[in-house]
Amino acid sequence: MKTNSIIALILSISLFGLFGCADKYEVDYEAPVKIEFAGVDQNNRVSLTKGIAEYTATVKVQGEIMSFEIYQADSKTGMQGSLIEETAQSFADGTTNYETTYKFTSLKENACITVVVLGTDGHTYQRNLLVEITPSVLFSDPDYGKDGEIVETASAYYGCYYATWLLGRTYMAADAMKYTNEVDFSLGDIILPSGSEAVPVLVSPAKRSDYGLMTINGLQHTLFAETSLSQAEFNAISQVDATPIENLADPTSEVLAIQADKVYLFKTANGKKGLICIQKITAKTGTIEVSPDNWVENTKYSWVQLLTKTVAK
Q: Taxonomically, which superkingdom (predicted)?
């Protein structure tokens, strides 16, 4: 009993020390300067409805400040960019509870700003605001450093099945089986009637077996056409105007040879319409999958780096 009493006493002292320390050293800090944006969510973000290309932000600063500035910022990383000079304000004697507005105009993509203020305490305070458009055209977004999303003409590492959803996804067969409704087009190597050697082609996912290519069940049919658009014209298509894509005549080919620096049109059976810009085609030799879990070594295929712009539904 004596031993148990000692143990209980030690535990009670330990628990008191644990929770007592937590209360003793807990810091309830409130910054002397606060930057707030009116009408935004908890992440300082506002989403515009489709077709809206302007937004006026109301900026409220609570506390005493010596200067106020707004900078451009990267909409993906939030990294601060160049100063928007007309927003810069200095207050020789300081000012309290400053409020102003900033207008975003002619928005064609998401935009971000960083508000930076210098407090009378000598410290700098800043906060970002992100304005998101609702796009009419969905862009693929390759990983950092890539010229385009890599799609293979035979599945070796990345895969030959491509879906425009989620900023662009390339799938091997095992993953494509999970997303058969999302796969929009595929690539392959085919000997066309006009040639004697296999060449890289766009091929309808539903027609792959007709051309001796590895396939999976349930993929949709897609048609293709070569356009007269240059890469510069492709690049000029904005997220807010789908007209340049919508005005193109519907494609008619289920298989189509491709070349670098060309722009192709696709339309899926479920009505999705978009452009494929071929950035680069690189010849490869390696081990490819010719059927589920069946691989063949020392086989020629290609890496195709591409970008897509698809009409949003």
A: Bacteria
CA distance 255 to 185: 10
Residue 293 has what pLDDT? 80
Shortest CA distance to 158 belongs to which of 310, 304, 308?
A: 304
| CATH superfamily for domain 34-132 | Immunoglobulins (2.60.40.10)
Integer angstrom CA distances of residue 7 from 20, 165, 219: 19, 61, 68
Please report, for the chain, the start and end positions of each structural domain, with discontinuous segments joined by +. 34-132, 137-311
* Residue type at position 313: K
For 143, which DSSP code? P
- The contacts of residue 277 (CB under 8 Å, 6+ apart) are 148, 231, 234, 262, 263, 264, 306, 307, 308, 309
How long is the chain?
313
- The SS3 assignment for 48 reads coil
Please give the span between the terminal C-alpha atoms of the chain, in angstroms, as a whole number: 75
- Of 251, 264, 257, 252, nearest in space to 190 by CA: 257
- Write down the pLDDT at residue 145: 55
